[in-house]
Amino acid sequence: MTALDLPHRPRILVVTLRRLGDVLFATPVIASLRGAFPQAMIDVLVFADTAGILEGNRDIDHVVTMQPRPGVWRGVALALRLIRRYDLAISTQSGDRPTAFALIAGRRQVGPIDGGRRGALRRRALSRSVEPQPGLHRLEEMLRLVDAVGIARVGHLVCPGGAPLPSAVRQAASQPYAVVHAAPMFVYKRWTLDGWRALAAGLRARGLKIMATGGPAAAERSYLDEAWDALPDVVRVDGRLSWPELAALLSGARLFVGPDTSVTHLAAASGCPTVALYGPTDPRLWGPVPAAGLAPMWAAAGTIQRRDNIWLVQNPLPCLPCQNEGCERHVLSFSKCLDELAPAQVLRAVDAALAAAWTPSGTPAQTVDLDGRAR
């Protein structure tokens, strides 16, 4: 597609009104825009509680925030503040609100559309639209927006940066360590407490200090208390680090282990050897992206798959990946595939990641799992 005709120093807005992982996955769009328009002013509109994952991102000039439920008058005030302020506005979602802000803010607009009548209306309203194509990885969905602008793709995620570790954490991280993130946002993505404790024992036996990360939410802290309080040698930094500080912690780690969560995506993007524990989520849609970009794509299911600096671990039951919210189909559900995931299998991936961490950089991506099944 031919490039959009924009001024030499265009004003550009990227609208990403969803969760942390979605904001992180929008960074290749932002990086592609910066590469194509180095003199541009690039702003990003996000929810206030997701803005931290963009801190220190040098591709961005300003982050504009709003509350998830701002109320009518605050929403109108923001719309008036943004109206026709930008030469180009890109919505990374097909929903009503992000599309509306793109239409209000940009003289030209690009965004994805759904099927049906609404999709047809949005196709006519937007300057350029991206048609729905089921089964694409989230990264590819984002890069199709870049194609619609008519510029070159940047196919990797961009981590927050620019903040040193707090002195107490830096001192704890002075010996070889692994970062473990045990608590995803939703229960159905959790591994078992016994699994995390067995992993901790295995990491200690391999000479690694354990740095346990997590968010500040009360329910998450309670779960981490249950997981780690009986293990006094685990260094807990949950709720203590900003996103740039967390990125710095990951950059110095020998290993990261975590479930399907935004922190796991951040670890993978940082280049840290990452062991990702996946349950119902389809990695073909939401698998982690290595630091160098994702190629080849993840397979639907396997015991242990490797792509560059990532080892993706699954318990490949016949129903996997179901892409449901657990076996009971709600966010507080259990997931049999994770409940029955054996610590020994996770430790196999840990050993593979630790061994590979000592090989020269540029190791090619592997397209077979550790059981030898072709992918």
What this model shows, in words?
This protein has 375 residues and is α/β, with parallel strands linked by helices. It has two domains: 11-149, Glycogen Phosphorylase B (Rossmann fold, 3-Layer(aba) Sandwich); 167-356, Rossmann fold, CATH 3.40.50. The chain has 14 helices and 13 strands. It has helices spanning 20-25, 27-36, 72-82, 96-105, 116-125, 138-149, 167-172, 193-205, 218-228, 243-251, 262-270, 283-286, 336-339, 343-356; strands at residues 11-16, 41-47, 62-66, 86-91, 106-112, 128-130, 177-181, 209-213, 235-236, 255-259, 274-277, 304-307, 310-313. Strands 9-8-7-10-11-13-12 form a seven-stranded mixed β-sheet, sandwiched between helices. A six-stranded parallel β-sheet has the order 3-2-1-4-5-6, with helices on both faces. Helix 4 links the parallel strand 4 (86-91) and strand 5 (106-112). The longest helix is centred in the C-terminal third of the chain and has 14 residues, at 343-356.
